Structure formats: structure tokens, C-alpha cells
Input
Amino acid sequence: MVNKFSYINTFMSMDTPYEEADVVVFGVGFDGTTSNRPGTRFASSAMRSEFYGLETYSPKLDLDLDDYKICDIGDLQLSIGNTDTVLDEIYEGVKNIIKDNKIPFMIGGEHLVTFPAFKAVYEKYSDIFVIHFDAHTDLREEYNNNKHSHATVIKRIWDIVGDNRIYQFGIRSGTKEEFNFALKEKHTYMEVSTIDTFEKIVRDLKKKNVYLTIDLDVLDPSIFPGTGTPEPGGLTYNEFEKIFRILKYSHVNLVGCDIVELSPDYDNTNVSTVTACKILRELTLVVANNYNKLLGGE
Output
């Protein structure tokens, strides 16, 4: 299994042997359908370097990476240049992790990579809900004559799960048709621009299986310019701290998650990369802690 991945330097304190790990972190360096500014393929490698500037301990969550069994297996080996093949390779990689009864945590890459990862998770946890943070709706049926695109990824997931399964937060950009699909036709639950109802939704999802996907352009570009399609009017990092605390004390079963759309080269201060690293640390701690609570029957 592990020889399907290329090893590079690992994230700090994510060096538990694969066989013993509960949470498996891996990178997916693909941005083949990016329509604006490419560069997300470099996200995981940039983050691995900057991650060592953080501490293993989160004072906001009172959790420490050293207390959990987390394994960074490096980046998936992908056939860059062939989108369909790449999607199959991501699917197979995540399927192997799921088969080994571990929680996959993926670092993109453009947002399309969420689709094959989710599809693999769905095959084991068909009774599943999706929480989606993003600046963009990602609900187009096609984009540039392509049904598999970063702009169609949530619509492709909706094709699998149907209505009343997808919860979208921070959304502030999309076509009129996409907003009508969510807000008027109510195919998804969408909160425009904000996260005010997030805590209530998480309470409603108690004991449910949840896949969490975070497009980092949900953050305001004044604090996160390092992304391909920045959109003013986004969340602050402090709002993400609130999200993490809510998830820590929730009873949702986080069975898979990802963070996507960091393009490190568009922020030469590296602040965007550091912010992505901190989100990775906090969310990994939440996922690992919730997994342990589930094992303990809480």
C-alpha cells in the first residue's frame, strides 16, 4: 500500500507509521482545470516547509499533535496532463486509505480533487453529509464544456448524494443559476457570505457521517491572497477558530476532509501558506480527537 506514494519531508509530528495511524494526511498536486491562476499543485510541498514554524500544541483547542496517531504519507503520484486518469488515481489512493479503516485528510490541489476523494469515502459511508466552505458555489453543470472542473465539483457531489445532504458556507460568488439551484430550489443548504448558522447545522448533524471540504479562498484575500481566484468579502481567521471549536465539541463523525486551493506563489510573504498550515494543524487535531471520542463511545 505505502509504496503507491512518494515520500518527501513529512509534516511535523505526523510521522506515526502508516499501519498504526488513525488519520492519514497526503497531498494531491493537481490544478489541471484551473481557469484563472494556476499553482495549487505546489501547495502541499510549500506547506510542509512552513509547518515547522508552528507548535504542535493548539492553545485554542487544548490539543497536541504529539498525542495522536497521524501519518503524512507524502503526495500521491499522479499522471499530470490527463484529468480522467488523475481522478481515478486519487479515487484509488483514498479508497486504499478507507479500506485500511483510516481517516483521509487531503491537501489539494484545485477543488476538483475533492470529487474522487469524496466518491471513495461515500462507497464506505453512503449515509453521509457534506460541509463545504468556499467563496464560490461550484454548482455549475459544466464549465468550459467540461463536467469535471473545479467549478462543477459540488454539483458532481450533489449528483451522488442528492438533496438535503450538502451544507455550504461563506459563498459569495457564482452564477444566478447556481444561486437559484441552492437558495430558491433548495437543492443544497447555502449561507451566503457568513457562517452564522454553522453551529446549529452541526448540532443537527449529531452522530452523522460528515465529509468536510474547505476551499481556502473562503478566507478574505486581505489575509489570504495566495489563491487562484480571490474573492473580497470573505471570512477571517478568527471565524475559523470558532469553526474548529464547534467541531471539537460536536458529535459529528468526520470520516474524511480536505483543504484545497492554496496557490503559494501568489503571496511572496508566505503568510497564506502559514495560514493554511495553521488550518491544517487545527483541523487535523479536531479530526483525530473526534475519531478518538468515537472509539471511546462518546
About this structure: The chain has a mean pLDDT of 94.
